[in-house]
Design brief:
Helices cover 90% and strands 0% of the residues. It is mainly alpha-helical. The longest helix is centred in the middle third of the chain and has 113 residues. It is rod-shaped and about 175 Å long.
């Protein structure tokens, strides 16, 4: 090997420094890739949490819809029962009015009969 074939010390130093820069760049790229992986994992976890929350919200909305439908049906039944009870109460009130009239007439007749009996049995009669 003659001196012209061997690289000079300056060339070797330049190669070494170039290799150092490449190593620093590779380490930086590795750190960036590691951070990017961690960010992607965090994003995946967040997306899973959002998906679970959306499913839970949809389930809650469906449960609320079913509960509202049942409440509406129960209210309709209660309203129908109230209409029936009202009609029955109206009939009861009318019958009670008729019975009151009969009782008042009977009371008046009994009073009149008593008064008449009193007058008939009085010594002045």
């Amino acid at each position: 090997m003659d001196s012209t074939d061997a690289p000079s010390a300056a060339e070797l130093l330049a190669s070494w420094r170039s290799a150092q820069r490449d190593t620093i760049a590779a380490r930086t790229a590795q750190r960036v890739a590691t951070l990017a992986l961690a960010a992607a994992e965090a994003a995946e976890g967040a997306a899973s949490a959002v998906d679970a929350a959306a499913v839970a919200a949809a389930d809650a909305a469906e449960a609320a819809r079913v509960a509202a439908k049942r409440a509406r049906q129960a209210a309709a039944l209660a309203a129908e029962d109230a209409r029936i009870l009202f009609a029955s109460a109206e009939g009861d009130e009318a019958r009670a009015g008729v019975e009151l009239g009969k009782a008042e007439s009977a009371e008046a007749a009994a009073h009149d009969a008593y008064q008449q009996a009193q007058q008939d049995s009085s010594p002045e009669a």
